[in-house]
Design goal:
Layout (H helix, E strand, L loop, with lengths): L3 H11 L9 E11 L2 E5 L5 E5 L15 E5 L3 H7 L3 E5 L2
Parallel strand pairs: 3-5
Antiparallel strand pairs: 1-2, 1-4, 2-3, 4-5
Protein name: S1-like domain-containing protein
GO cellular component, one term: nucleus
Pfam families: eIF-1a
Length: 91
């Protein structure tokens, strides 16, 4: 058996924090678009669409107003090429 809850509680008590990589940023969820798409806004107020990978589909639930860690490495290139999805949820 796995010790999921025990390990989760231990990590919470130790106060481990998520460290952001170079291209990652924290964004707030504005609306849920459906089919693994959410609309997020960054600290400057710029809105963009983010994709939730299928591996996160049943792991956690996202509501309006939640904060997510987003990988926005190809954001500018995606917008220039005409794609509406600009970033991908990392955590």
């Amino acid at each position: 058996m796995k010790a999921g809850r025990k390990n989760l509680r231990r990590a919470w008590q130790e106060g481990t924090a998520v460290t952001l990589a170079e291209n990652e940023s924290i964004m707030q969820v504005v609306t849920l678009r459906g089919s693994n798409l959410i609309e997020v806004t960054d600290g400057e107020g710029v809105k963009s669409l983010a994709l939730i990978p299928a591996k996160f589909q049943k792991c956690f639930w996202i509501k309006n107003g939640n904060f997510v860690v987003v990988d926005a490495s190809g954001r500018d290139e995606a917008l220039e090429s005409g794609s509406k999805i600009a970033c991908v949820v990392s955590y």
